[in-house]
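Example record used in the benchmark description.
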Amino acid sequence: TTVVYPNPFVSTINFQFSQPIEGPISVNLFDVRGRLIFTTEKEATENTLTLDLPHIADSNYLIRLSTPNYTYYAQILKKQ
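Model output (structure tokens):
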């Protein structure tokens, strides 16, 4: 399982994984219209992936985290 916190978030959001995830995690962030607005690759540290997203507008987003063995989707909300 994956726990997302805090949600809603102001600038930083965390994804806590119940299992270790090896290697880089591909991160894709989509707006409510399905447009890809942000992408990066990061490694999880101690089963947690932390993303700093202060530059995106306050809104709902769909985020996809993926590796060759794992894919996770979540709806996240950015607000002040």
